[in-house]
């Protein structure tokens, strides 16, 4: 069943003297439990599209539905994981994880137990009472993930959450995030520049092109890769095959836009 649908989304940014057509006629559908990636060159509109799907920006034309209901503002059913973790430095790790329930006034013992379980799932039980400044970038992103999952969103929007991390940390975190999202049956949309990351983590990949941003092509990730962890998927022959196809596609897009 489709959880999220974007229908014929077109978006213009208007400034005082000119305008930019950031997206043109984008339609997409995300099935419940699926992991999809938006992949494309800088400026092709990935973040604009994600912001529209999240209800942060209203599209100039088109509409978004979540569970058949129109998305016109930010939804409590959506969770975010961004490039920056935005942890509160003056709050302990457990209190950072519990910030959403606290704001919504739904904090109870059960939620506190759930936060502890999530921190255990991500291997951070030992830093529960520490402050963010004593954690590495990868650990902080794990806390950000726990903070997102504590409110049990039906859809997760991940905007380049691994791009500020070193390569080794990024690979480890991809595995952890992927396992956790499967364990909790989450539906997710990832924005990334990284072809390998998109293939290793996704069920479907939407390749976008720029000026204006459009969905150029959709790729299905072979089932053999989806059954593996991202790290192991990267070693499969089908990973390399798909990587080459997408690489070729993006190269052609680039040469068309230069030419
Ligand atoms: N607030 C804004 N005002 C005017 N133009 C904007 C604004 N935000 C984005 N744009 C333009 O819209 C287009 C799409 O931008 P967007 O940030 O969505 O692309 P992106 O694919 O996420 O880029 P990147 O990968 O570099 O983050 C670009 O041409 C950009 O310059």
TrEMBL record:
<dbReference type="InterPro" id="IPR050166">
    <property type="entry name" value="ABC_transporter_ATP-bind"/>
</dbReference>
<dbReference type="GO" id="GO:0005524">
    <property type="term" value="F:ATP binding"/>
</dbReference>
<protein>
    <submittedName>
        <fullName>NitT/TauT family transport system ATP-binding protein</fullName>
    </submittedName>
</protein>
<dbReference type="GO" id="GO:0016887">
    <property type="term" value="F:ATP hydrolysis activity"/>
</dbReference>
<keyword id="KW-0547">Nucleotide-binding</keyword>
<dbReference type="InterPro" id="IPR003439">
    <property type="entry name" value="ABC_transporter-like_ATP-bd"/>
</dbReference>
<keyword id="KW-0067">ATP-binding</keyword>
<keyword id="KW-0813">Transport</keyword>
<feature type="domain" description="ABC transporter">
    <location>
        <begin position="4"/>
        <end position="235"/>
    </location>
</feature>
<dbReference type="InterPro" id="IPR017871">
    <property type="entry name" value="ABC_transporter-like_CS"/>
</dbReference>
<dbReference type="InterPro" id="IPR003593">
    <property type="entry name" value="AAA+_ATPase"/>
</dbReference>
<dbReference type="Pfam" id="PF00005">
    <property type="entry name" value="ABC_tran"/>
</dbReference>
<dbReference type="InterPro" id="IPR027417">
    <property type="entry name" value="P-loop_NTPase"/>
</dbReference>
